[in-house]
Amino acid sequence: MTILSYTTVDVFTSNRFEGNPLAVVMGAEELGTETMQKIAAEFRYSEITFVLSPRDPANTANVRIFTPTMEIPFAGHPNVGTAYVLGQQKEIFGKPVRDTLRFEERAGLVEVALRRVGGRVTAATIRAPRPLDIGAAVSEETVARCIGIDSHAILNSTHQPVFVSVGLSFAVAELNGPASLGAARPNLTHFQDAAGPNAEGNHDFSLFVYARSPEEPWTIRARMFAPLDNVPEDPATGSASAALSAYLVSLAPEQTTTRRLTIEQGVEMGRRSIIEVDVVKKDGVVTDVSISGACVPVMRGEITV
């Protein structure tokens, strides 16, 4: 019998019971993947993390990320929340916890910077582990069917719906305003049809839709649906926000620029989240993407396996 400790935090918010909840499980070195997956399914959060000792002692930890149905290579809110939890400790695996952490993950090495106020960790900033990858296009009709809206509500003046990734792939589509965004309802059958046998290289078919105004193009309101992963809607999706932000900056006319995007998500669920994304573009190429957000602790407990 093994007893594991866990902490839950709400990520991308400073208010308890808003943002995106995350469970961070410690002491799981002896657990197999199947058991980790069962624990993730039990929590039913969009993701939970297991913090293991690093393979390379130069790094802080090996972090495994699970949705209710599968292990994934990278995600935004699990990294921000895990860093926040570890930042509350004086040491991890026998080493002092410093303001810069390095997580080993399936997508690669993820660097995290802790943000402190009065010496107390309040937030974290992570760097996306992979460069922007632009995948296959998605038809407007597919997007419309998946979320039950008229295809005319999907804009293509900036880009057509398309898969993008900086570590985890999402289909992204721009809608014509908050009303269309609020009307979206995921349809499981159409998501299954969209995924098909290979899902265009995506882990199932996760759809990130957003709206913005011409006056404030870098302030975005978004929703993310992943019903095939038992996540009908996600309150905050850092990896999707980062991928979309990198893509939009890549399309901007400036060849060299630094942009900060603010993405509001989870409003329709009653779990408002604020995600900040900083994108650096040099000579027409996005070279750096970072995701920032605040966190707040919620619960502590034990799991017996």
Automatic annotation (TrEMBL):
It comes from the Bacteria. It holds the Pfam family PhzC-PhzF. InterPro entries: Phenazine_PhzF-like (IPR003719). Gene3D superfamilies: Diaminopimelate Epimerase, Chain A, domain 1 (3.10.310.10). Transmembrane segments: none annotated. SUPFAM superfamilies: Diaminopimelate epimerase-like (SSF54506). Coiled coil: none annotated. Belongs to the PhzF family. PANTHER family: ANTISENSE-ENHANCING SEQUENCE 1, PHENAZINE BIOSYNTHESIS PROTEIN. This is PhzF family phenazine biosynthesis protein. It comes from Rhizobium sullae (Rhizobium hedysari).
